[in-house]
């Protein structure tokens, strides 16, 4: 962390956020519960509740994000908040099958219970986006990864989508507003619309080169009117050394085997003396296709739906203690717990308050990290929150350290 001031994601700075903080986006049964507890004089009852999940969609691991939003939501209320650091790579359950507590809220239920709906929303969708992006990031290696996903979501969510795609491992985002509120520069190539209105690929490429700033890389879209191979060769001949790359965004109905197509274009460019021209791909990509296309010779990826429309992580928030005593609904593990992760093998361990953690991981002997830490005391954040860049760096550092395969996984699973 750096800086001395409280920092929150910029997309929370909006008039709508006040409605969220007032509990106006809650489910109605929390409103009714609040009224009932007031009548019963139980609204000041102290409780301890944990956020956990049973599984991460399509993966044995996820990336936990949205913590800064929760802290801002609860700021000023008489509550304590404990959480694993935002950007932590997590497993849903520990070695014994106990759900890993990733965040916990402690305080009089009547002061924060109406905010459960918003609390979960601030964690579920962000964690879904960052988790999906991190999987694509691993598949892409160190190659450029661009967030194209805002066109798949309501525009009010543009900055949310791009912020968490960036945190999860994207290098840059394409939406102008998202980039501006993040203090970044929007990045992108050219759309098919430019070619269609200009009348030809050649006219569009020439105009782009003539009128767009020189520090914007010349990456030509080559599949609007013709075969990708011949489009790529034509762009390379016309723009010469100024051409950084070509982008293939071929519709699924015309692709055939996209891997073979990339290989064919790569071979043609190399044969014609244009080895410097890189191939960038977009359109319906996910972690599996990125891995294949990277092996085929693609050197940059634009990802959209698989990241922006990623399934939310299905977190739940459950009371596990009331007035300091275990009280929990059926099917859940009661009592407050602490979460540990092995620094070396990334296995997780959950220990109750009456059970001490061992000093070393029983599987590999690595050091155990206690990750559920106090982040808010009586409504006051314990320190500044990381910036998007700091979160992204933390995620990437963990992805590079993750074992392959990650922990105890089903046979044949590949990250």
Q: Could you characterize what this model shows?
A:
- α5 packs parallel to α13 and α9 packs parallel to α10.
- A hairpin with a 2-residue loop joins β12 and β13.
- The protein contains 15 helices and 18 strands.
- The protein folds into two domains: 210 residues, nicotinate phosphoribosyltransferase, CATH 3.20.140.10; 110 residues, Aldolase class I (TIM Barrel), CATH 3.20.20.70.
- The chain is α/β, with parallel strands linked by helices and 415 residues long.
- The protein has a seven-stranded antiparallel β-sheet with strand order 13-12-1-5-3-17-18. Strands 7-6-11-10-9-8 form a six-stranded parallel β-sheet. Strands 15-14-16 form a three-stranded antiparallel β-sheet, with no helix packed on it.
- The longest helix is centred in the N-terminal third of the chain and has 25 residues.
- The chain is elongated, with a radius of gyration of 24 Å.
Question: What structural category arises from helix and sheet content?
Answer: alpha/beta
Largest sheet: spatial strand order: 13-12-1-5-3-17-18
The CATH class name of the largest domain reads Alpha Beta
Task: Give the total of beta strands.
Answer: 18
CATH architecture of the largest domain: Alpha-Beta Barrel
Q: How many distinct helices?
A: 15
Number of domains: 2
Fourth-level CATH superfamily of the largest domain:
nicotinate phosphoribosyltransferase
Largest sheet: 7 strands, antiparallel
Average pLDDT taken over every residue: 91
Strand content: 15-25%
Between the first and last Cα atoms, what is the distance in angstroms? 29 Å
Radius of gyration: 24 Å
Low-confidence stretches: 405-415
Helix content: 25-40%
Fold-level CATH name of the largest domain = nicotinate phosphoribosyltransferase
Gross morphology is: elongated
């Amino acid at each position: 962390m750096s800086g001395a001031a409280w920092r929150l994601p910029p997309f929370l700075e909006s008039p709508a956020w006040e409605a969220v903080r007032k509990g106006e986006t809650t489910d109605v049964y929390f409103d009714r519960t609040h009224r009932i507890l007031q009548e019963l004089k139980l609204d000041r009852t102290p409780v301890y509740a944990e956020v956990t999940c049973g599984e991460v969609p399509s993966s044995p691991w996820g990336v936990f994000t949205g913590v800064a939003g929760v802290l801002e939501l609860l700021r000023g209320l008489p509550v304590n908040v404990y959480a694993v650091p935002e950007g932590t790579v997590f497993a849903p359950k520990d070695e014994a099958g106990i759900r890993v507590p990733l965040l916990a809220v402690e305080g009089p239920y009547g002061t924060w219970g109406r905010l459960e709906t918003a609390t979960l929303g601030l964690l579920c969708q962000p964690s879904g986006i960052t988790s999906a992006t991190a999987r694509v990031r691993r598949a892409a290696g160190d190659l450029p990864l661009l967030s194209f996903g805002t066109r798949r979501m309501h525009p009010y969510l543009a900055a949310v989508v791009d912020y968490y795609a960036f945190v999860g491992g994207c290098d840059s985002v394409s939406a102008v507003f998202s980039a501006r509120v993040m203090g970044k520069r929007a990045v992108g190539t050219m759309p098919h619309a430019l070619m269609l209105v200009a009348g030809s690929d050649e006219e569009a490429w020439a105009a782009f080169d003539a009128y767009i700033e020189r520090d914007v890389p010349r990456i030509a879209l080559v599949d609007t009117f013709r075969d990708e191979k011949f489009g790529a060769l034509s762009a390379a001949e016309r723009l010469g050394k100024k051409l950084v790359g070509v982008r293939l965004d071929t519709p699924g109905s015309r692709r055939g085997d996209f891997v073979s197509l990339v290989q064919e274009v790569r071979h043609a460019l190399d044969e014609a003396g244009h080895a410097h021209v890189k191939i960038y791909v977009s359109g319906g990509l996910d972690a599996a296709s990125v891995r294949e296309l990277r092996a085929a010779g693609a050197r940059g990826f634009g990802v959209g739906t698989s990241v922006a429309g990623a399934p939310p992580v299905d977190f739940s928030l459950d009371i596990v203690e009331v007035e300091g005593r275990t009280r929990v609904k059926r099917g859940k593990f009661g009592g407050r717990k602490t979460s540990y992760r092995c620094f070396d093998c990334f296995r997780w361990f959950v220990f109750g308050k009456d059970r001490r953690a061992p000093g070393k991981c029983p599987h590999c002997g690595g050091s155990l990290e206690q990750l559920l830490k106090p982040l808010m005391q009586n409504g006051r954040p314990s320190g500044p929150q990381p910036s998007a860049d700091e979160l992204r760096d933390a995620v990437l550092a963990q992805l590079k350290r993750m074992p392959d395969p990650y922990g105890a996984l089903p046979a044949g699973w590949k990250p």
